[in-house]
Amino acid sequence: MPSLCCKSKGHDNFASSTATNQYAPNTVIEPVHLDISLKFGNLKEETMHGKVTLTFCHSGRALIGKDERSTVVLNAEQFEDLQVLGEGVTHTYDGHHIQLFWSTPFEQSSRREVTITYKVEEPIAGLYFQKADSMIGASPLWAITDHETEKARYWLPTVDFPAVRTTLTWAITAPEEYTSLANGSFVSQETKDGLTTTCWELKHLCPSYLICFAVGEFVSVDDGEVDGRPIKYFAAKGYEPADLKRAFDKTPAMMQWLQNKIGVSFPWPKYYQIALPAVGGAMENISLVTWCDTFIQDETNSLERKYLTDLVNIHEMGHTYFGDLLVIRHFEHAWLKESWASYIESCWLEDNVSVDHFRHEMLENAHSYFSECQRYMRPIVTRKYDSSWDLFDMHTYPGGAWRIHMLRKRLGDEAFWCGVNQYVKEFSGKTVQTTDFQTCLERASGLNLTRFFDEWVYSKGYPKIKAQYEYSKTDNRVKFVLTQTQVDEANNIPLFATDIEIEFTDDQNHVYTTRVTFDRDASVTTFINLNDKASPQSLRIDPDGKVLFSLELAADQDILINMAKNASDVVSRITAYTELIKKGSRPLLKTIREAIQIEPFYGVRVAAANELAKLNSTLSLQILAEMLDNEKDPMAMASIADACKIRDDLMRSAILRFLERPSLPYRAHGAALMALGYQRNPEDLEYLLRVAQDDGAIGQHGIVRSGALKALGYHRSQEAFNYLNNRVGSEIGLEPMRARPQGIRALQHSAEWQEDRLKKLAVESIAQSIRSPHPIVRMHAVGALASLKATSVCNAIASTRHMYPHDDHSWLNRQLKRLQDSSPVSEGLRADKDKIEKLEDRVKKLEEQLADWMKK
């Protein structure tokens, strides 16, 4: 699955009609070093006093006009008490930009210093202070930065774009009870009059979005060293060190593996990781990686969460080379860091877990990308966007990771990793763009990759392949016809030039292979002649997983059954189960029932469960209920329980049995509660309310409570609605950083099924959170109100624009457009939904009666 540092887009078009091409800034005069001095008092005051000395130099090899050599614009949002000092420099400040003017233009190689002093109070982004209600059961004080993509400007005067990189020195002064961390190597620490000044130094060039510091009351874990580089983990006081260590314990082994994989020594002087509530997902800041504290895990949480945490851990570490050591020139090249970090996740699985896990991860990546493509398609590299944040989507993360994987398979491992090694070495400490990566791979392999990059990187879409299988018993020959159906030149969706291998097995266990080459034609045919007296048995299309495509496979059911039972790779087995379940016949489902019980890989079972839920027939639900009863793997339990969100008596009985299990993992517990809420059975309401109010059943990070709240939203009863409305509308009772966002969404789901009077009450309750100091609460509230088509609060939401950083404005604009284009949900629409569900219930009952009749 994609890393959690990805931000969901939640819209149907990538760029608005007003989006324009965006470009990296000029760097004639640029800062090359920042000397940062910060002072904090009591962190409750949410105030920072800053003094930053910027060293500027002329970056060009030759001089250009005087104007370009006499001025620089710095990003600086909402600074107070601003003063600028420097020889021969004047400035203007409009609350967003500090424009510096020198009376004498810069000459080549000349350097000048400018010192800026200022105060920041309650910044809206970039620098986050602990809120009194940020954590469950603890309230330590802390402050931390989180910048991507353009948020450093809310506390630091800088050129806030990746093309500009500086070295750093730090002096952080704070009350002596606090710990201060920052990028780079520890230099010194001195305490005087109750204040401690901690100094750090980073000698590597660092873009603004990777600059990071943290101050506060922390617990820490020392995890030794790798090649002399200290490794430590930090979290807010109140967390158990054992839980912190459990989350990140593979870090040393990952560092050893990664530098061996890339062939370049780890460049940073230390590798610290810190987990705090204000961080969104995880962020790869140089030598000080930040995490959301929900990744900290106790033993129960670890059963479900450790796998993902390890992937995010190696993802962020992968940025050491792809994004930190090699910095993208501008945001259109974001895939050179995020796609690479995502692919490093899969490579870690391949080398350290299993090929099955690697193939399954790549399949999940493909599905995430395909799902987004149903809403919008864009080239992997594009300059046309509304906000730089918009580029951090499923095209960039899993979609781009697949492009890198295909390049690896096209070049072969030796040439590919040789090219990567040279790419990292050649551009170490520099900025990169897509052509740099292409050139290094071409140089290592001798291949011309222009067509690949034209089609896969600079065009939209991916191959959608329809595969037809035919067997002629007379000729004892198999015929395959593969067709790309996605071609749409008007929308820049090309025919993709690629080779796809086909592997076929007969009943004598002879294996035949052939290759289909797409070049200029959308449809390609190939034949396989079988040995005498041999019959078709099984097939695999792209058996080694070399190419990204979606597949519609028309094959005989016996072939599919053998694939499901015997294919050696998880992708072929998932493909077979998907096609078999779509057919939906009773004999096939009975075969699936037997086969799925002995399927060894959890991901195949989860995929089958999801397809059985989609089929939604009597027998498919019986099999799904049995799967829930039998599942023991924590990696699969939550997903299979989630698939059971179907209103059916059989499902309800299975879910209740599942909830009776002792010591359920948290996510499995929460998913089962939500599935129970879907049943809308009045008898379950008391139980769901009891779980939602049970402080002994919160689950680490509120996971179980969140599931109970969502379950009440799905229940649709007025009593559940009243409870949710009271909880969301109350000033106390729901932790803002944990359960409150889920409570808001639960209330939204419930309100959609209530009469207009109650829906208006829900809108009023949710609207109280649009000015929450917690960004995650604010954004959930706005999203819920947009889903409820609450046009009455459109102006109120618009008035909160000042609370959002500018790189989130495109998201807010989309929510406002949803509201402006909508009308309230009418009783008629709600009645239509009820009619559809009642019709589905009637169809299912008729199917059950028919099945009973056939048994007689």
Characterize this entry briefly.
With 856 residues, the protein is of the alpha+beta class. The protein is built from 26 helices and 30 strands.
What does this structure look like?
- With 856 residues, this protein is α+β, with helices and mostly antiparallel strands.
- Among the domains are: 29-297, tricorn interacting facor f3 domain (Immunoglobulin-like, Sandwich), CATH 2.60.40.1730; 327-456, Neutral Protease, domain 2, CATH 1.10.390; 463-547, Aminopeptidase N, middle-beta domain (Immunoglobulin-like), CATH 2.60.40.
- The protein is 40% helix and 23% strand.
- It has 26 helices and 30 strands.
- The strands form eight sheets. A seven-stranded mixed β-sheet has the order 5-8-3-2-11-14-13, with no helix packed on it. A five-stranded mixed β-sheet has the order 16-17-18-20-19, with helices on one face. Strands 9-10-15-12 form a four-stranded antiparallel β-sheet, with no helix packed on it.
- α4 (335-352) crosses α6 and α19 runs parallel beside α21 (739-751).
- Residues 1-10 and 824-829 have low confidence and may be disordered.
